[in-house]
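hi support,

uploading two proteins for the ticket. first:
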Amino acid sequence: MTRSAVGPLAGVRVLDFCHFLAGPYAALALADLGADVVKVEDPGHPDEARRVGPCFDGDESVYFRSLNWAKRSIGIHLATPEGRAVALDLVAGADVVLDNFRPGVMAKLGLDHDPLAAVNPRIVTVSLSGFGATGPAAARPGYDYTIQALAGVMSLTGEPGGPPGKAGISYVDHSGGLAAALAVCAALVERGRTGVGRHVDVALFDVQVSMLTYLAAWQMNGGFVAGRTPHGSHPSIVPAQTFAAADGHLSIFVGNDPMWARFVAALDDHRVMNRAWVTSAGRYEYRTAVIACLQGILAQRPVAEWVDRLTAAGVPCAPVNGVAEALVEPQVAARGLVAEVDGYRCVRGPLPTAAPAPVNGAPRLGQHTDEILAEAGYGPERRRALLDGGVTAAPDLDHSQACH
């Protein structure tokens, strides 16, 4: 019997052939929206995230659990003919197959789109890789770190005169995962019109180049060469950056002239009341003087006082939080951004208001093998034969040191 679910993707079954971060995050977003996500792992080559430290909850990697809650797991030895036959039987009852292997791996396993569509013409397949299935870089391995470098982002990160920097989170992987989830949803809508599935080739590099947006437009159409800016400042909007206050740092973004007027009033300091700075063009022209003046003023009071004062004036600002501080922001609780499943706390997917919070944590490898095969029509004797023959796998644990 299939499990019941709620949410906009309730009734959609996704076979998740993914590992590490980008693909599992795509599948997590779909699971958080109500899809029945079945994580398919080969016990001989399980998701390496199961072994990633430094923190473990008992024998389970906290890294892995953060990306795989609300999923079920089946263990299948995919390289064997019998394992491939089991996978194809699962495809017959599925809506989506999602993978983030290098191009060619799913074809080598006999699980690329054409053989799957022969079993289920309605199947949607989405492959997420570093560079996609075409072009001179298709066969290259692509990871968040290297794509941040190749796509120009590292050249923009860090202080001028310093080394290039990496973004603080793996945003190439996360944004690529969101693009893959979007591709799934778009292809399902198309299938609703045509009755036929399709394959979508998603690349982390494509997504990152797309996210260059205005910087790419300035470069291609205006010859503007972007570079690292001090204190994370915006290349053309002044002031839009971080500032040091008396006890920490805060981020301020003054996006237009009326906002500047409110900002000046909130500061209540004659030093910033310069008529040459009342327009965005003037502030850009005199950027150095504007920033120096503001820094002198903002350094005199604590972060919380400035945040209260500027927020009351309608000026966008925020303390520069650490992760711990971010997670206890009142908005986190109000929006239900943190859930607790099986005694484990996790942040929700990107659309937490679209579906209820999850009730199941990350699965052990093969935890749901028996029930998933039963749903596919396999009787008890057949299920036992597959397990005893080593074609499928029951739960196993990854024994690792706990995080202290």
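and the second one:
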Amino acid sequence: MSGHLPVMLAEVLDALNPRDGARYIDGTFGGGGYARAILQAADCQVFGIDRDPDAIKRGEVLAKEFGGRLTLAAGEFSQMDELFGALADGVVLDLGVSSFQFDQAERGFSFREDGPLDMRMSKSGASAADVVNSADEDDLVRILRDLGEERFARRVARAIIATRPLSRTAELAEVVSKALGPAALRHPIHPATRTFQALRIYVNDELGELERGLEAAERVLSAGGRLVVVAFHSLEDRIVKRFFTERAKPAPAGSRHAPERAPAQRQTFRLITSRPRMPTDAEIARNPRARSARLRAAERLAA
């Protein structure tokens, strides 16, 4: 499992509070860092889910090491209640792309090394190349603006359309860099970062998967079970914050004088973190990818 540093590991374990005899779901197994730490922290069972078949294959070594206490399943974490088939005592989600995916040029997630313009986590469905080569200008603008928060989405979209077909990560990075001009190259963040983020999120429907996954965790958690989520950008964190805020809000008391209305959302969680926890300076120095991480956690209330 080398090459993967689980982000905010100590904080995740503190929020999850693993205990003997309990059952946990690692919905984004990746390199197995969280699963290993949970198994080491308590005599418990862990159910690891990942839609990337490479992650499941890598995890077989870890499953053997822990003698049947780790079970792996290929699939999306939004399917966790169907895949697990029982109540869980805790769920952890580490959102976004894994270090393994990011570091493999052939997966096409990064512009640091040239590779095919792919970005698919599950290796099925439309690739990033399919999107940039077929979407019309308005659709590309919406993807770049809404999912990448790219200020110059129209300029980038027009440059892509004028240059396509594109099939390599280096090609796309160069098109974006030229479209944004020399000033963008002087910025500490590479000019293609937002475009690559937007396409990756779109290709993998990451925000839709997150919304469905939070609801699945709500269904699968037993009373007292904990949901811990580590997000890496504002779009993800906003969804997690809204979900926890809505689910932790007590339903208003009824009144015989008030007119009838639709039933209020029942309170299903108690917040463990009123504000997001962030990585320490020491962790950021050790693992720069942790810089933007935000951890939120809540405890499931009785049904």
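thanks. also noticed: The first helix runs from residue 9 to 16.
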